[in-house]
Predict the 3D structure of the following.
Amino acid sequence: MRDDQLLRYSRHILLDEWGVEGQERVSQSHALIVGAGGLGSPAALYLASAGVGHMTLIDHDVVDVTNLQRQIAHTQERVGQLKVESLKNAIAQINPEVQVECIAQRADSVLLNQHVAMADVVLDCTDNFETRHAINLACVQYQKPLVSGSALKMDGQVAVYDIRQTEAPCYACVFPPNQALEETRCATMGVLAPLVGIIGSLQATEALKILSGIGASTVGQLVLFNAKFMEWQTLQTHRHVQCPVCSAHRS
């Protein structure tokens, strides 16, 4: 590593579990972030500040004035700009060495198959079940670790799904694709602004642990946070042996 990189990342390198070796692993890694809004903003900014070498951003939307209440990567001046381009600009202001690829398209199965295959970790920062299940399917097919987050009103959750671990569930084991769930979004229900920052930051934390090889991830756990009462709860999750998504892809 160069002297300027040793200085930039010194507070991570000082961590006994991280060190120069962990920083080099992170700097050589590739993170795919699907969703450049409330969750994707803090997740991407923290991954960039930590020196993740290559990031791919997928989001088809543009910055709207209603986003500015919580999507901290975007600014008043960038209203109307593609979110992926706005987020890329924010990343460059923090760490210009990060290589950022912008995909201004809706995340369908074809696009996900192409980009999940090349990633070391995938962050699901989206807001609808259809896309979440498509991301999970691609991660299962290519056996990539998935860091999933969601936030609505004053409740948030985060989990890691990684079927490289024999007994680990995939997203569909916990939230079956054929389960009748009411689709609710913050556009109609609202969301507390700092809540998406908390959940997005947790997603970045889990992704960095995976990329650097330190700590234990939340595989097999669903971490719930209630901001109204400042309460945390951890639920144990389990593999569904007849899961329609991951059962055929287990080694």
